[in-house]
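[09:14] KT: can someone run the structure on this one? pasting the chain below
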Amino acid sequence: MKIGTYPLVLCGLIFLLSASAACRDVRAEAQQGNEKKVYALYHGFRRTREHDGDLGTWKQFFSTEKSATGQKTVNFNPDLLDADGRAQVASVNGGPIVGMQSELDLDYIEYKILLAKMAHIDGFLVDFGFPEYGNTVLLNAFMEQAEKYDFEIGVNWCDSWLVDKTWIQGYRPEITTRAARLEYFQISVQYLLDEVYSRKNAAVVQGHPLIFLFGGGPTADEMKNILAQEYRLPNDLGEPWYVRRIAPPGQYTSGRVSYSAPDSAAQPWLNIGVDVHSWIALRLRPRDGVHTAFDKYATTDDVMAYNEKFSALWKSGKKVHLNTAVVTPGFDNHGCAGWGAGTFTGIERDGGELYRRQWQFDLQNKDLLDVIFIASWSDFTEGHEIEPTVTHEYRELETTQKYAAQMKDLPYSEEERAYLRLPQRLFEARKKTARFEELGAPIFDCCAWLDETAEYISGGRYAAAEQTIAKAEQIFSALEQMEQVETIVVSTAQKNLTVSGTADDNENYSLGDGIALRIDENTAKYLRERVYDAVLKFSYVDDDNKNISVTAGSLRKKPALIGKTQGDFSVVAEITKDASGQRKAACVPLYRKNIALTHNGKSGSDFWIEGSGLVRDIQLVFHVRSLPRERMKNAFWVVAAAEDESTVTAEVIVAPDAPSQFVLFGCLLQEGRVISVKSCLTSELSEISTLSFQKEYAGQNAVLKLFAWDSFRGMVPCDSVCLISKSCFHTPFLK
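[09:31] RB: done, structure tokens below
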């Protein structure tokens, strides 16, 4: 990008960027380690109204009447924001630390992949059912991003979705029998070999595609026949290696838990050439006075006893190809009550000790193991995710980074741990880039810097990534200081909202026949022409188990079909009630790109609310965002400029009439490329202030340009608007 085409902003009076040559990266050199692999289960899939027009598994409702805990329902409404402004997602741990996101958002996928790479995870095994099923869309999205960053993708085949259930009939009505489903299983194997394992970054171990089987699909005898078929193998790879989940039984007797040896469950699979893994320990202890939230639970000691029992299989030498150990951070299915089973089971995380002890146990058996399988990266619904969450933050990821390095004979340092927040900073910076681009704000080389940051993280060059992203963050910091927010309340009291429907004297509106919300045209026109964040607020009585539906007039086309699911951008919210009898306040986020505000909704409305019961206290709150529009004239003069071997400085005097919230920028260029940027708000400048730059390439000429923020023409050189005299640039260094 050229200066003058896109504006540039950066805050901070003095901000020195370290010279590139001085950066010391923690993992800059290639690291070989051993051949052991660390994979994480990727459970999906979750979507958003803004990105996809629906919610996926972020939303959950189940009856739990059969639970002894007294909790009658599981009810998560991610269309509602809580008091902290967070979506009410189906997660017992507060959801992702970066907030509710769509798992099809490439920025979010990038964030996950880079985090996993930093934690020495080789790849994700993504839940898969059959080619037509919706999760295949998720699998394809991950493969697209993973290829950029040399990160492996394979599948955790939820084989029951195809073989045990009849879901395939919704896509292929001719498949009506188990025999036909097993035949289609063979077709699906070939699909995976062609579409997933033919890629250069497929999950491959010792030259063989790695496929995990979650169980509930083919029996061992049926799988033997599937293995006997001939398949086209990609890229000179060997036949697939399968690893199936088994669950050795256990029992609870008089306060004690014991688990059976895995041999009887494992042997039928080993006999046909399929390895096994243990999955997560069964929860066998009944609810007690301490663990009142669970119908069944397991302790950390139970999990370790389970792992100890299963390790006998590793020591027996019975593996076909691979010994796999499973580690899990915990378990808590309050997000879904066993996917409709209606009871609650759990394993408490014990302050992270549960996860640490499993890794330590596996390191003691390191010489016997080939693969570590983390269960899981992202199962927020059953509470065994290691992705950073609101509640546990980075704790489990830090544990993974430390112990996975030891498992793979890679170096590890606390300095490496300190960089783990880089992918989150990158993700947030990408979202800010989009936000400020929408405002027409100056972002200059930010997109390129962020792409470079991602490449540096992927390559283990963390110091370089830190240096590069800092430049973009400084720009966003300055923009945030300059940003102005105007709050507009739309309500009947403000006389800019018309509510049409049946109401009583207290303005309680009946949802039975629906109610229409229409914004005054003058207000609507003002909002259509601007950038805003907004929420719809109302209160309702939670008196039954029916939904409250909110739709809006929208001009967006429907998103692509995901399996059998068709998203709809006109849907604002589907709020499930659970008959609590309480009056509840609803705060529903509104997404500007989804909402037309042209009165093109049902019955000429902008918003339509229907369902059962009464609502009241209806209002919309818009936060209109903008950047200052005044012109700067005769605000700054450069009074001196100088350079030495490492630094160039410009002394600046600010005029008495300079606006108080504008920014002066200095841009140090090397062969037309920005290598350092500085700025300061006029309110921060004293009578004479200094902008100081380090030369980043010693012995080479560089150019210093000064710019001022001009909203009408973008970022312009100060001399071109008579703000700074050209005669100020009097050294060979400054041009």
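[09:33] KT: thanks! Residues 1-24, 630-640, 710-735 have pLDDT under 50 and may be disordered.
[09:34] RB: yep, looked fine to me
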